[in-house]
Amino acid sequence: MCSSAKRMAECSGDRRQATVKIKVLIADDNSFIREGMKIILTTFAEFEVVGTVADGAEAIAFCQKNEVDIALLDVRMPNMNGVETARILTEQTTVKPMILTTFDDDEFILEAVKAGARGYLLKNNEPERIRDALKSVHNNHHVLQDVVLDKIKLNLATGRPEAQTPSSASANPTAEPSSPAPLGSKIDRSLFTERELDVMEHIAQGLSNKEIAKKLFISEGTVANYITAILNKTGLEHRTQIAIYYLTGEARMADK
User: Fold this and answer.
1) Up-side HSE of residue 40: CA atoms within 13 Å toward CB?
2) How far is it, in rounded angstroms, from Cα 124 to Cα 128?
């Protein structure tokens, strides 16, 4: 009970704070998806859909003029795709971009993570899964669905080079692609030795322990020891998370 005017004001303030909603922008060129997602999110008390737009350029313009917590982005959109949109939002705003897309867009996964996307989720998820993912992203976690992590693991295991995807193209198709940030530029490099940083960089490039050992002129056992040290320092669990951490600078992830 609020026994005084001061306490009543405090309680009132607590109630107002409790009703603050996560402001979400939906960007998808498919109007059916946009409106369907809007209906889904508005059924949850945690969210307020502040707008819907049809492409990345519109998403950026909206976020620059309005208060948005999370931009829920389709990866394939006209004028500007979701990856480039995520990159610009990360660089120019405080909005947290999250990719919601179809399974056949998996070639964009690493590019999206590098661009600053806080989550990468498939459209065929249950509404409750999408709700939980948005809440995790709002709380500064990365959300990578299991099937998405499996794709990253496959890329790392095979050492497949990053594809030159349309994600480097801006709204102007003739413009020069933007230069990506150097690998490892977002992490606190002071936490690691130079050799540990070398190992992390090679993991992020998709090299196996054997390949890293050959590159650095050390034994595979030594590489494994460095990986163990890195995991201990970051609190991560496996090499895939090391790669994502090196690319994004984020050690906290909700990947289940």
Assistant:
1) 20
2) 12
Radius of gyration of the chain (CA): 20
Q: Are the beta carbons of 251 and 191 closer than 8 angstroms? A: no
Q: Which two tokens stand for residue 165?
A: 């995807």
Q: Which among 122, 144, 124, 118 is positioned nearest to 22, based on CA atoms?
A: 118
Q: What is the pLDDT of residues 31-60, one digit of tens each?
A: 999 999 999 999 999 999 999 999 999 999
Helix, strand or coil for residue 72?
Answer: strand
C-alpha pair distances (Å), 165 with each of 59, 78, 101, 158? 21, 14, 16, 19
Q: Using alpha carbons only, what angle is made at residue 82 by residues 78 and 252, rounded to the nearest 5 degrees?
A: 175
Q: How far is CA 219 from CA 87, 216, 230, 242, in A?
A: 37, 9, 17, 20
pLDDT tens-place string over residues 225-240: 999 999 888 888 888 7
Side chain identity at 132, as an amino acid letter? D
pTM of the model: 0.62
**Both tokens assigned to 95:** 């909005």
Do 160 and 111 contact (CB within 8 A), yes or no?
A: no
